Amino acid sequence: MGPFSARQEETGEANRHSADDPLHRRQRLMVGAAGLLACLFFILDLQLPLGVANAVLYSAVVFLSAASQYRWLPIVTAITCSLLTILAAPFSPRVPGLPAWFEWGNHLFSLFGIWTPVMFIYQRRRTELLLKEVNERLEQGVEARTADLAASRLALERSEEQLHSLTGRILTAQEEERRRIAQDLHDDVNQRLALLMLDLQTVDRQIGSAPVEAQKGIRNALKGLEELSDDVRFMAYRFHPSILDDLGLKAALQRLLDDFSSRTGVKALFVHQPLDHQLDKTTSTAVYRVIQESLSNIARHAKATRVEVEVTVEDEGLAVVVRDDGRGFDQLAIDRAEGGLGLLNMRERLLAVQGSCEVESNPGRGTTVSMYVPLARVAT
Amino acid sequence: MTLPRVLLADDHTLVLEGFRRLLDDQCELVGTVGDGRALLEAIPELKPDIVILDISMPVLNGIDAARVLKVKFPQVKVVFITMHADPAYVRAAFEAGASAYLLKRCVGEELGQAIRAVRSGNFYVTPLVTKDVVESMLRGIDGGAPSGPELTTRQREVLQLLAEGHTVKDIAGTLKISPRTVEFHKGQIMEQLNLHTTVELVKYALAQGLTSQT
């Protein structure tokens, strides 16, 4: 009975830590049950010959102890059960006529039955540990991957931002360049042409007595110069409408719409709320270009009979709506097709001045382009 | 008649040179300047009768310079000589207080006539642009003039809501625009339709079948 009492003592020790804890109470109960069972089987062993079925019964106790929280319990149980088996061997009743080796074999089988579960349990524990380790390593891997992903997303966002700013700068540079070319054409080439014409007109007046051919030649030259001057003026306007800088957005848009109407025959309505906001060159050029792009889209695709352009002031910003009654388009299709490029260009232009743009269209029900550009209020 | 004192403003030295030759026998050229601000600064000292200027000029453009000039020195006549044949420019020039509008290419023939007209208190517009100006006047859509009885989709929305008795604030909320913009639309509609009271506005909307209420 020695080993049994020793186990009782250990159980008591384990319980001293937290007697009130329900979990520990269960553990204590389990150890007690294991001890009791072992004790019961020991007595059974003493009563029955050949240690019948003790191997199986003791292994059940070992299995039971494996469910405990204490990792040492299966081994201790196995040792105890082994000792009990060995102790019971000489005292258990003998079956007459059976050779001694048979009984001893039986007891050895009991020992084998006790230790096999222990091996099994420890094998399982090792696998569990390994699995846990693999799991942890996997988790670390996932964490590292997540961090990597977050970093690359950040990098992507940054490069997207850079792309926007680059596009904005390219558009501004392009606009600047066109403005310069237009100015050169208008202010330099054309002024010189005008002067040439002046000079020729003077000559024309002075040679009143010259042969008719000479007069005719000069008149022809003058006519040619005039045409050239008109062409240059138109080229300059195509590059950059100086009216935008000279007379402002409203006059420039009015001119744009007049030209649009007379070119396409599409009726244009223009509503423009007076501004008490500062409209800088870059912003007004962006708004002008986006409206121009919208109109050219309408001219090319919409088959519209009427276009409305509304410029109003909303929340410290300029709200512009370009609406047509044309055949519209399938928005999903356009995002994929080449037509998306014009819209992208419009978006980028507005983005460069912190603006935004939305296009709404349905087949057969016209198209509405809405844009918004924040403005700086004039300091008064 | 004594020769008029003329101040010339243009940022192109070549043009200044060309004009100088032209003006020599018709007026007394008191000076030349290169931009609008310099022009305004030179007037008190040079005391010109007539200022001849271009529209596209650095620092301060011709239109803005003319506007200030006419406020400060109303007796000085303003003559524009530019490259721009666009009616919008002509309109802007006369709104700023111009007395004459010429194109550079016709200056040789018309400047004398223009100066005579201006001195006797008349206006002069070069025949080269009168066709466009008259056409745009007839169209009535140039320079912010009301564009006739046709209303935009938004204007019709505003008109309908007004006719149905909604307040400006309600309409602003419904259409998600600011009350100021609603007021602006209302004013524009009344101007375009030549209506003067809200009652007339409602009557018009009813006549047009714009309201959903009976």
Instruction: Enumerate how many helices of chain B there are, as a single number.
Output: 10
User: From the structure provided, what is the oligomeric state, counting identical versus distinct chains?
Assistant: heterodimer
What share of the residues of chain A does DSSP label as strand, in percent? 5-15%
Helix content of chain A: over 70%
Instruction: Give the terminus-to-terminus CA distance of chain A.
Output: 104 Å
Number of helices of chain A: 11
From the spread of the alpha carbons, the general shape of chain A counts as rod-shaped
The radius of gyration of chain A is 49 Å
Structural class, from helix and strand content of chain B? alpha/beta
Q: State the CATH architecture of the largest domain in chain B.
A: 3-Layer(aba) Sandwich
Note the gap between the termini of chain B.
73 Å
The stretches of 5 or more residues of chain A where confidence is low (pLDDT under 50) are: 1-18
The most extensive contact between chains is: A-B, 44 and 43 residues
- How many E-type strands of chain A? 7
Major sheet summary line of chain B: 6 strands, parallel
Would you tell me which CATH topology of the largest domain in chain B applies? Rossmann fold
**Number of discrete domains of chain B:** 2
- CATH class descriptor of the largest domain in chain B: Alpha Beta
On the 0-100 scale, what is the average pLDDT of chain A?
A: 81
Q: Work out the strand percent of chain B.
A: 5-15%
